[in-house]
Amino acid sequence: MGRGTFEHNYQALNLSQLRTTEIDAVPVALALSPTNTSTATAIDLYCGDNLAIGRWLLSQNVRYRLIYLDPPFGSGKTYGARVNGGKGVQSEVVHAYADDADFDHYLQWLEARLVVARDLLADDGTLYVHLDWHAVHYVKVMLDRLFGRDRLLNEIIWCYHGPSPITSAFKRKHDTILVYTKSRSYYFNADAVRVPYDQATVRTFRSSPKAGFGKVPDLERGKVPEDWWYFPVVARLHGERVGYETQKPEALLRRIVLASSAPGDHVLDLCGGSGTTAVVSAKLGRHATLADANPVAIEKTLLRLQRLEQLPQVRLWRYATATNDE
Ligand SMILES: C[S@@+](CC[C@H](N)C(=O)[O-])C[C@H]1O[C@@H](n2cnc3c(N)ncnc32)[C@H](O)[C@@H]1O
Q1: 314 Cβ contact partners less than 8 Å away, ≥ 6 residues apart
Q2: 118 close to 127: Cβ distance less than 8 angstroms
Q3: 49 CA distance to ligand 1 centroid (A)?
Q4: Is 198 among the domain residues?
Q5: What is the pTM of this model?
Q6: Does residue 108 sit within a domain?
Q7: 208 found inside a domain
Q8: What is the DSSP letter of 22?
Q9: Which of 94, 97, 231 has most ligand 1 atoms within 8 Å of its beta carbon, as the pocket-test mutant?
Q10: Ligand 1: which of 79, 246, 252, 325 to mutate, most ligand atoms within 8 Å of CB?
Q11: Residue 110 near ligand 1, beta carbon < 6 Å
Q12: Mean pLDDT of all residues in 266-284
């Protein structure tokens, strides 16, 4: 799968014609349809402000077992997407989204979305909020207030590596994902995410019956991963790159989706970006709902879904414009 493949805009849709001030009750039919509709997973894409969309979903009484949120990080930067590239054609960079330069305003903006996300969780559901050093400590306190401190399931550190212009400090090469559960009785499938023990551990336990103070791990079954994860960033994964600057790796979402949802469950991502959550959910047999205010994000998502071996049933909902209050 070549890098340029995803850099075209989606030709079959005239997204600007879909703009409306209200969320439509009838989705727009898409050319992208599965061959077997009875077994296909359903992917719903909403282009518009995620607060309006989240509130609308609440009013429809839908609830999700897994919500992944990868919002702007409060960096104050602007981000781009590559479009209209192809074989022998240089792509151009268009504006994707701006991260709020006013940090207090950013926190208010995010809090309103976190409240809606909490309310959209099923009773046994889990929320993953993906941030970095810019805002994570502020948002941790916010989420403690919204969920209760004892509902923090994990603070996942996602580590990666790559070039950095920083020479006056250590390179900033990790993100933090805060994980909260709606209740004590939450879904977590440890067996779905086990990884092999490292070779040194296997050698130690095989060579000495006394290793581990008498506790012998099931070396064949593997272990539940620690709360720090290494996955390369998308910049290094040529096969996955779709020209969306803040695209996350599928491996990261795969672990989250496998651990916190079952096949047939409904997954929600209110900051869908290039559609990583939709792609991974479809591959793993979960239904997914994604929202993004940026039409280019929706186009990237559609392009990625279109290339899946098992085509999901995709519905595109009309644009919802931002509410005035937040
Ligand atoms: C960090 S990116 C998500 C990247 C995504 N996880 C991926 O793998 O491609 C954040 C996304 O939030 C979207 N966004 C920002 N403000 C929004 C809003 N008010 N409503 C909906 N989406 C919004 C941006 O357009 C951007 O695509």
Answers
A1: 30, 32, 33, 42, 43, 44, 45, 302, 305
A2: yes
A3: 10
A4: no
A5: 0.91
A6: yes
A7: no
A8: S
A9: 97
A10: 246
A11: no
A12: 97
Indicate the number of domains in the chain: 1
List, for residues 55-110, the tens digit of each pLDDT value.
989 988 999 999 999 999 999 999 998 887 777 778 888 888 999 889 999 999 99
- Which atom of ligand 1 approaches the CA of 49 most closely? 20
The domain of 50 spans: 3-193+231-320
Distance from C-alpha of 13 to C-alpha of 7, rounded to nearest angstrom: 15
Tokens of 259: 């651990």
* 246 C-beta closer than 6 A to ligand 1: yes
Per-residue pLDDT tens digits for 36-70: 666 679 999 988 889 988 998 998 899 999 999 99
**Residue whose CA is at the smallest distance from ligand 1 atom 10:** 71
User: What CATH number is given to the structural domain containing 70?
Assistant: 3.40.50.150
Confidence grade of residue 177 (pLDDT, cut at 50, 70, 90): very high
Asked if residue 221 is part of any domain, the answer here is: no
Average pLDDT over residues 209-218: 72
Instruction: Tell me how far apart the alpha carbons of residues 186 and 1 are, in angstroms, rounded to a whole number.
Output: 38
